[in-house]
Every structure is written in C-alpha cells, then in structure tokens.
Amino acid sequence: MSLVVNTAISNHPDPAWRGRITASLIALIVLWPLLIASEFKPWILLDAQSLGATWHFLASFFPPAHSKVFLLLILQATWQTIAIATAGLTLALLSAIPLTLLATESLSVSRLESGRMGLVSTVVRQMARWLLVLLRSVPELVWALLLVRILGLGPAAGVLAIALTYSGMLGKVYAEILESSEAHATQSLLKNGSGRLAALLYGALPASASELVSYTTFRWECAIRGSVVMGFVGAGGLGQRMDESMKMLAGDEVSTLLIIFVLLVACADWVSTFLRKRLG
C-alpha cells in the first residue's frame, strides 16, 4: 500500500504542490488585511461612470500634440529635466564620497593599528551612518516640497532635493560595496602610511569600479525619473509641463509628454548599459 502511495506522489507533476498551496494560503491570509487597510478596490475602474470618463480622457490623447511651439517648449523642459538630474547627482556624489570614507569600516586606520575600531572612530562611523540614514529616509519629493517653500518655484529645489536624498543612498551603497570587496590592497596601503583618500583611490576603487559605476548610472536614471515627478510640485522640468497639461485636460499634450518620458528613460537606460559593458 505504501509503495502505491509513494509511486502516486512521485508521479505527481508537482511534488511540492502541498507546500506551494500552503504558502499561497498564508500569503493570502497575510495580504488580505493589508489590501483592506489600503482600500484597494480595483472593481471601481469597471464602473460605468469611471469607464466613460476614462474613455473620454484617453480619446483626447490622439493625435499627440506636435505643434512647433509646443515641441520647442518640451525640448527645453527635457533639457532642464536632464540638467536637474545630473546636477543633483553630482552634488550627491560630492557629499557621498566623504561620508563613504567615514562610514566604511575597511578604511579605518585605528582598526588596522589595534585590530579593532577605536572609540572615536566608532562614534564618528556611527554618526556618518545615521546621517546617511537621515538623508535617504526623506524622499526627494518631500525635500522638493520643503525647498519649493524656501527657494520658490524652479529647478533649484529639484537639484537640492535629489542631492540630499541621493547622497544618503549613494553613501550607504558605496560603503557596502567597498566593505564587501577585496580589501588586501587597501589594507596594505593604510599599513604603509597611506592616507584614507589615497587608499580609496588606488586600493578600493580599482577592485570595485564596475559595481560603483553601475550603481551610479542606475541612480542617474532614477534621478531623471525623480526630477520628472518633482516637477508636479513646482520644481521645473517635464513634470511641471505635465502638471499644467493635466490641469487643462489637454490630452494631446499629455500624450506627447508621456512619449518623451519613455524615450528619455530609454536613453538613460541605454547610457547605463553602455557604461556597464565598457567596464565589464
């Protein structure tokens, strides 16, 4: 009898079906209260009134706006979006590099000398890490909302918002990449009296350059998307143009802007892929 049962189980197309069903039921039990709390009701989209409004709005998308004056405005806004993302990421890099030096344990001179981190080094390292946590905990959109109130409408708020949030993200990931990479060259330089910056440039960076550049270009792509979103709160760029078109219910302009969004992100992805292949 047991042989028959074992044979039947072994012949089942999915021997792990019981575990899969159990895991699916547990996931459903856990996720269902979360869906209720988030008021997730997708069936509202199938309401007759919602369908009518959706169809009316989408019908205005065609043909996309293509007047010369509008395209020139979009070209200027696109360039501004790229400038916001690039300038913000550059400022984030300038902030992230010194914080990475402080937060990376493998670049600690006191640890090399005594075998463990000194009290002052530990305190400084933890303060740097908490500063990185603080910077990346506040989304760039929230920073943009605050900075628009201080600096007024315009791209300056978007640049600083990206710089603040992304410095925390870059510093954290840079420190993790450097700590997980081969530290022999870095330790040799530090033991022979090299400074932390020189140890970073000539020891740690060559071993981690591909990962660092890959993550940086990915963050640049994210910064482009983020600068678009921040435009909705008055930080300039394509997002601000999109907000104006949405308020005027100009579907043809929205359609053109969406096409530009897709092309812009695709170009950023191409640049990121090209750089990764060059370093790979």
Task: Tell me what you see in this structure.
Helices cover 80% and strands 0% of the residues. It is mainly alpha-helical and 280 residues long. α9 (184-191) packs across α10 and α11 (238-247) packs antiparallel against α12 (251-279). The longest helix has 36 residues, at 68-103. The chain is globular, with a radius of gyration of 26 Å. Residues 1-5 have low confidence and may be disordered.
What is this structure's SSE topology?
Layout: H1 2-10, H2 17-37, H3 48-59, H4 68-103, H5 109-114, H6 119-137, H7 140-151, H8 155-180, H9 184-191, H10 196-230, H11 238-247, H12 251-279
Helix pairs in contact: 4-6, 4-8, 4-10, 6-8, 7-8, 8-10, 9-10, 10-12, 11-12
- Strand-residue proportion: under 5%
The counted number of beta strands is: 0
C-alpha termini separation: 58 Å
- Unreliable runs, pLDDT <50, ≥5 residues? 1-5
Tertiary shape: globular
The number of helical runs is 12
SSE sequence, one letter per element: HHHHHHHHHHHH
Biggest pleated sheet:
none
Q: How helical, in percent, are the residues?
A: over 70%
Query: Whole-number average pLDDT?
Result: 80
Content-based structural category: mainly alpha
Radius of gyration, whole Å: 26 Å
